[in-house]
């Protein structure tokens, strides 16, 4: 939900799909601990890196909540190991060319010297704007 500090809904991306979630872009909702899943968006992650303050994430990690942290190529190396090892990371790789591939084509990510990860496009989760229609402010 663009323009909102935080919002609520079911997670639709990744392995925690369908879990009731509080999504945090800025500011912390007072009811953060009432939800089974706390999702820190890339905007919040950038602020934590800038301020070098991960205290809210550490606080949530001490509970039984699931914590997801968004990361990109410019933020991944700045996430502290104490968060990296315990939180679920969604690593975003922007690439508009993926939409051009057929379902039977293969996505290949080169991770270094003879380290390649591949998956057929049809095996990927595909999320579209309609999947977010149940997000809400409370």
Percent strand: 15-25%
**Helix-and-strand structural type:** alpha/beta
| SSE string | EEEHHEHEEE
Write down the Rg: 16 Å
Q: Tell me the number of structural domains.
A: 1
Total number of helices: 3
How many strands? 7
Low-confidence stretches: none
Q: What characteristic shape results from the CA principal axes?
A: globular
Largest sheet: 5 strands, mixed
Mean pLDDT: 95
Give the end-to-end Cα distance, rounded to a whole number of Å.
12 Å
**If strands are numbered along the chain, what order do they take across the biggest sheet?**
1-2-3-4-5
Give the % helix.
Answer: 10-25%
Outline the secondary-structure elements.
Blueprint: E1 6-10, E2 20-24, E3 37-40, H1 42-51, H2 55-61, E4 66-71, H3 81-84, E5 88-91, E6 106-110, E7 116-120
């Amino acid at each position: 939900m663009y323009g909102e500090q935080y919002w609520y809904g079911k997670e639709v991306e990744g392995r925690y799909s369908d879990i009731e979630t509080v999504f945090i872009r800025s500011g912390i909702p007072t009811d953060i601990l009432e939800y089974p899943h706390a999702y820190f968006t890339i905007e919040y992650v950038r602020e934590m890196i800038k301020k070098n303050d991960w205290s809210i994430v550490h606080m949530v990690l001490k509970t039984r909540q699931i914590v997801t942290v968004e990361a990109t190529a410019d933020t991944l190396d700045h996430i502290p190991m104490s968060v990296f090892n315990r939180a679920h990371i969604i690593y975003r790789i922007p690439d508009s060319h993926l939409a051009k591939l057929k379902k039977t084509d293969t996505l290949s990510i080169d991770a270094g010297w003879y380290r390649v990860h591949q998956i057929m496009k049809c095996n990927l989760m595909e999320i579209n704007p309609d999947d977010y229609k149940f997000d809400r402010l409370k």
